[in-house]
Amino acid sequence: MANFTSRVDNSESSRNGDYLPSRWEAQSDAVNMIFSAKTQSNPESSVGLMSMGGKGPEMLVTLTTDFGKVLDGMHRTKIRGNAHLATGLQIAALALKHRQNNSQKQRIIVFTCSGIHEEEKELVKLAKKLKKVNISVDLVAFGDLDPDNTKKLEAFNQAVNSGEGSHLEVIPPGPSLLSDHLLSSPILGGDGSAARGAEDGIGGGGESGAGAFEFGVDPSTDPELALALRMSMEEEKARQDKEAKAKAVAEKAQPLGNIPEEADPLLDKNGEASGSGGGAPPDEKKDKEDDADKMDTA
């Protein structure tokens, strides 16, 4: 079990639409997915949420197991200003320091999609401090992936990495959702075996490593997380099936439309059934009239 603090990048760069459906909405989906996976794998795990855009970082939700609070925090977040990476990491570390259970592991998950204004030396110094207090940091880099940003993040990751495992995921734009990439990453797998190698054709024909396991997670090393991810997938499948059935029922219940009337009416002008034997044929009526005339003559 562990305490997690997710830091989202709500700077102006998050408005960009190069990630589906946008950088900000992609982060929101990923945060929701991470919260569900972590809390389902261990109900005692708690997650906090903070933003790092605007005038300065803001703690949106303290450590909680209430998913509704996390959703509300994301809903209240406004896109504005520039991101403050170093300051946000320091505040997140303070939030983890005040956790209720000191035996729980500490981890910060950072989403960054904008330029990094801090110097590399400053970030490396901060990374060493976090490593000293046993805080792992997972970095999810997307959006502005220029070489300078990537170099700073790589230096930070090398300095903060310890036995607990800190990871750096660099995700370029593409048709896949950000949450789909994270689902098969070491950030959720926890064993350091990224499914990225399998996607790139690395790792013994694609059958070894995380790519050989469903969701990129080895059930033998983390059975609780594997079960939680499977449950999430089954719940989503059940929801889609329910929507499909409801749509099919609605289509069957639609009116048949105007049905054209038959060419021959059911009743004639005398109120008798048309085409039936109820009315005498015209020839028979004429014969009866002729017989009546003959009788009068006689």
Kindly list the characteristics that best describe this protein.
single chain, 298 residues, alpha/beta, 6-stranded mixed beta sheet, 10 helices, globular
- Strand pairing plus helix content: what structural class? alpha/beta
Number of helical segments?
A: 10
- Secondary-structure element string: EHEEHHEHEHEHHHHH
Termini separation comes to 120 Å
Radius of gyration: 35 Å
Shape: globular
In helices, the fraction of residues equals 40-55%
Low-pLDDT runs: 190-212, 292-298
Mean of pLDDT: 77
**Strand residue content:** 5-15%
Sketch the major β-sheet.
6 strands, mixed
Please give the number of β-strands.
6
Quaternary organization: single chain
Spatial ordering of strands, largest sheet: 3-2-1-4-5-6
Summarize the structure in words.
By secondary structure, the protein is of the alpha/beta class. 43% of the residues lie in helices and 13% in strands. The protein is built from 10 helices and 6 strands, in the order βαββααβαβαβααααα. The protein has helices at 23-41, 67-76, 85-97, 120-132, 147-160, 178-183, 186-189, 196-199, 223-252, 282-297; strands spanning 2-8, 46-51, 58-64, 105-112, 135-141, 168-170. A 6-stranded mixed beta sheet has the order 3-2-1-4-5-6, sandwiched between helices. The longest helix is centred in the C-terminal third of the chain and has 30 residues, at 223-252. The chain is globular, with a radius of gyration of 35 Å. It starts with a strand and ends with a helix. The model is unreliable at 190-212 and 292-298 (pLDDT under 50).
